[in-house]
Amino acid sequence: MKMIQKKGLVLLCALLALLLAVLLVAGLSGQKPSAPVASAAAEMVETTQEVPAEEPAPEADNATGDKALAAGIAIGLAAAAGAIGMGVAVAKTSEAIARQPEAEGKIRSTLMLGLVFIETAIIYALIVSILVIFVL
Q1: What pLDDT digit, counting tens, does each position of 16-31 carry?
Q2: In this structure, are residues 24 and 73 in contact, taking their beta carbons and an 8 Å threshold?
Q3: Is 108 helix (H, G, I), strand (E, B) or coil?
Q4: What Å distances lie between residue 91 and 6, 40, 57, 73, 111, CA to CA?
């Protein structure tokens, strides 16, 4: 019973890391898209007032830097939580094999399946981070 609870805890930790990564990326990259060039050109044609030449240009926002920072934090959190989960899983597996050496095959196969799920969550966080940088 305790083994099932600990496996669930490791899986929950990995899923929570993925959820935090997605929420962090979504929250930090909530930039409004810029206006299309065609509409900006149409607005320039429609206006009849001249703009003085000495007017300073508005400061451009650093959307790419914000996206990179959000992606870095997201993948860092996902990797850290996944590493903690993997460490706990390997430690508990070693203890279980030491207590019951005859069940080594079943314990090891269950460990590998759990590690694959944790690693998949980390890879999903990496893909979401890459998408945020290059697509949004």
Answers
A1: 666 665 665 566 555 4
A2: yes
A3: helix
A4: 11, 60, 58, 27, 10
Tell me the CB-side half-sphere exposure of residue 40, using CA atoms within 13 A: 4
What's the predicted TM-score (pTM) here? Answer: 0.54
User: Is 132:70 a contact under the CB 8 Å cutoff?
Assistant: yes
| 94 SS3 class | helix
Q: What is the pLDDT of residues 29-84, one digit of tens each?
A: 554 444 444 444 445 445 555 555 565 555 556 677 888 888 888 888 889 999 99
Q: How far is CA 45 from CA 34, 41, 42, 49, 50, in A?
A: 19, 6, 5, 10, 11
